[in-house]
């Protein structure tokens, strides 16, 4: 880029050099652009009571349904004579191994069985013994270390074998879906069945069922 100095408006060599350098820094065409980026603040985090309906809400299995369902099953199970007042207390296995989701709502089954096991364990107060079959690999590894002498026997002593279960949870989630062809409204009925099965005879010693139907104009995405 050449700098032209008109007659009558003469400038010193240093000033002319400064002008030339400034113009050389401009983009092609000597056009300048100013871009201002607005950093709009995001929405603040809001805590919602998981036992109540909160936004967004759809037709799937949500936190309030989960809490209500597991609380109902816990109370019903503790009231059953199969589990209440027995000596010695029955040993139960409650996990998601045999709990199936055959419905249309994507769901981590552990969120149901974990909550049921924890709340039931707290409320049972020794009336039931909970066997952690989901942790059997961890237990067997530690037992092997103790018997090989790699670690000491601990403070609770050693047993001939790990606990066997008397009863184990099984169950199934099923759904019925309907969509209005004109309104676009979605409806979904959930039916969740819980069963405790005798691990010697296969007898179903306790059953519980929980069902609900929800309708929404626009469904949400469950992950």
Description:
The chain is an alpha/beta fold and 223 residues long. 25% of the residues lie in helices and 21% in strands. It is built from four helices and six strands; from the N terminus they run H-H-E-E-H-E-H-E-E-E. Strands 1, 2, 3, 4, 5 and 6 form a six-stranded mixed beta sheet that branches.
Task: Provide key terms for this protein.
alpha/beta, Rossmann fold, six-stranded mixed β-sheet, 6 strands, 25% helix, globular
Summarize the structure.
The chain has helices at 13-24, 63-79, 110-124, 136-147; strands spanning 91-93, 99-101, 129-130, 167-179, 186-198, 204-216. With 223 residues, it is of the alpha/beta class.
Major sheet summary line: 6 strands, mixed
CATH architecture level-2 label of the domain at 63-155 and 162-216: 3-Layer(aba) Sandwich
Named CATH topology of the domain at 63-155 and 162-216: Rossmann fold
Number of strands: 6
The unreliable regions are none
Averaged pLDDT: 83
Distance between the termini: 60 Å
The secondary-structure element order is: HHEEHEHEEE
Helix content: 25-40%
């Amino acid at each position: 880029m050449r700098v032209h100095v008109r007659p009558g408006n003469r400038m010193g060599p240093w000033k002319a050099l400064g002008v030339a350098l400034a113009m050389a820094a401009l983009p092609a065409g000597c056009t300048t652009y100013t871009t201002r980026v607005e950093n709009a603040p995001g929405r603040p985090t809001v805590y919602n009571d998981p036992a109540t309906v909160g936004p967004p809400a759809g037709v799937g299995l949500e936190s309030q349904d989960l809490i209500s369902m597991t609380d109902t099953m816990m109370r019903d199970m503790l009231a059953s004579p199969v589990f209440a007042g027995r000596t010695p207390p029955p040993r139960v296995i409650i996990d998601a191994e045999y709990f199936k989701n055959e419905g249309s709502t994507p769901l981590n089954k552990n969120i149901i069985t974990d909550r049921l096991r924890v709340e039931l364990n707290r409320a049972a107060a020794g009336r039931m013994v909970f066997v952690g079959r989901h942790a059997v690999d961890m237990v067997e590894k530690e037992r092997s270390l103790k018997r090989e002498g790699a670690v000491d026997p601990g403070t609770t002593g050693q047993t001939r074998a790990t606990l066997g279960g008397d009863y184990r949870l099984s169950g199934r989630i099923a759904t019925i879906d309907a969509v209005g062809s004109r309104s676009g409204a979605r409806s979904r009925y959930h039916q969740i069945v819980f069963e405790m099965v005798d691990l010697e005879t296969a007898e179903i010693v306790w059953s519980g069922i929980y069902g609900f139907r929800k309708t929404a104009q626009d469904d949400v995405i469950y992950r």
